[in-house]
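debug: dumping io for the single-chain case to check the tokenizer round-trip. Nothing else runs in this session.
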Amino acid sequence: QVQLVESGGDSVQPGGSLRLSCATSGVTFSSYSMNWYRQAPGKERELVAGIPSVGGSTNYADSVKGRFTISRDNAKKTVYLQMNSLQPDDTAVYYCNAVGRWSGIRYWGVGTQVTVSS
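debug: decoded output
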């Protein structure tokens, strides 16, 4: 059974930092590209950051470039999202997404809430 479990969401003040984690099981993690999406109330889900399964470059939404960093630990089967200089517009539910390199199959986590407010 495939599971993606996000953690690390919290409420922080503007300018603060959070580190999200997504622990996976039931997948050959190294064969999956990993992404973080977010969905704010009343808005569509948007891609925040992505990291390929092997090689290649990470990619980021323009709104988070220079503030967020995605990384992965294949040994721990975990992907991370380091978020710095958080702003109220970053408030959303953040979802972990895995995409099979060969199959294209997609899996989703249930999300973790990030709230940025003073």
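debug: round-trip ok. The chain has no helices and eleven strands.
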